[in-house]
Amino acid sequence: QVQLVESGGGLVQPGGSLRLSCVASGFIFRLNTMGWYRQTPGKQRELVASITATGNENYPDSVKGRFTISRDNTKNMVYLQMNSLKPEDTAVYYCNSVPYTRNWGQGTQVTVSS
Could you give the angle at the alpha carbon of 40 between the alpha carbons of 38 and 45, nearest 5°? Predict the structure, then answer.
């Protein structure tokens, strides 16, 4: 079955950086557009980065220029490099395909605070 396991979150000061990782299994990873989503209490899950099977990236304005998504199809992994972090980036971050499936992982908590 589909499994998604995220890691790399933590507590970081404003302006800091984190790199999130996600390992996927149970589907043909290299053929899928993959994305990173985030969610805060009371809000809908938000897509913050996506990368197609051929490596085309897309970001909303809220993270453009600060976040970079990448993938390694040999390892079934997708990454999110987050720089210049802001308190409003605080959320639980998840990876999933785009569009997403119902198979969510446990997510990884990112907290940006001084």
Answer: 45
What is the length of the chain?
114
Q: CB–CB of 10/18 below 8 Å?
A: yes
Instruction: Write down the pLDDT at residue 20.
Output: 98
- Distance (Å, whole) CA 111 – CA 88: 9
| DSSP strand pairing (34-39 vs 91-97) | antiparallel
Determine what percent of the chain is predicted with pLDDT higher than 70.
100
Cross-strand partners of 24: 4
The answer to whether 57 and 51 are in contact (CB under 8 A) is yes
Query: Which residues touch 73 (CB under 8 Å, ≥6 apart)?
Result: 29, 30
